[in-house]
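Good morning,

Attaching, inline, the backbone tokens for the sequence recovery test we're adding to the shared suite. The designed sequence is right after.
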């Protein structure tokens, strides 16, 4: 098994420990040495898994003290992806932070009037879906794709479509988890999309990039309890 796959295995196993042992936010994880012993891998594999968990907002490292639970993945998340898929699926956010923030920035600079109308139509479809009892993930995906299309660079669409499987699972889970919470959570999700579209409409590239990055950051956070 490659080091990357071993790291995925340890990542998923640590998430299972957090969930099965009911570890709360702020709880200290076993030491690197102890985790390496538990999983039969080297400390470097454990360290890589912990770094990725920290990048995904699940754990945080404190100098000289070890790693601690920062947030626990929602129990509802397992309905959309097994723990073994979490490293790859949540890892797609790292790519989306770069890809989609830049796509929003370029869309604000380059979008044509017809492309803007296409984006605003997509926003309307997403709004209707989110405010209904429909799944809404298809409309969410379509809006993000229309923004990528408005860059005028087909490479953005190719890259976005390559992430489709992971993004689809995240969007399905995100809407489902958000709907299990107070109504203002869906309202916040809707407002984040509107801020992106408004910035593109205003031809504010930095504002569009910032709004997209904030939306993705908050979207990842919504996958946690």
């Amino acid at each position: 098994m490659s080091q990357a796959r071993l790291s995925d295995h340890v990542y998923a196993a640590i998430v299972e420990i957090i969930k099965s042992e009911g570890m709360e936010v702020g709880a200290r994880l076993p030491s690197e040495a102890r985790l390496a012993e538990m999983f039969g891998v080297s400390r470097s594999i454990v360290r890589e898994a912990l770094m990725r968990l920290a990048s995904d907002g699940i754990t945080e490292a404190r100098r000289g003290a070890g790693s601690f639970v920062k947030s626990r993945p929602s129990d509802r998340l397992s309905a959309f992806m097994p723990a073994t898929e979490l490293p790859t699926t949540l890892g797609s956010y790292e790519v989306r932070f770069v890809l989609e923030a830049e796509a929003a920035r370029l869309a604000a600079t380059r979008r044509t009037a017809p492309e803007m109308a296409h984006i605003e139509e997509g926003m309307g479809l997403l709004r209707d879906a989110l405010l209904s009892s429909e799944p809404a993930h298809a409309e969410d995906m379509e809006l993000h794709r229309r923004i990528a299309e408005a860059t005028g660079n087909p490479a953005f669409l190719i890259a976005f479509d390559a992430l489709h499987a992971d993004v689809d699972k995240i969007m399905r889970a995100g809407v489902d988890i958000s709907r299990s919470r107070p109504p203002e959570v869906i309202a916040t999700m809707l407002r984040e999309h509107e801020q992106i579209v408004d910035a593109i409409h205003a031809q504010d590239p930095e504002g569009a990039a910032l709004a997209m990055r904030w939306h993705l950051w908050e979207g990842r956070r919504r996958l946690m309890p």
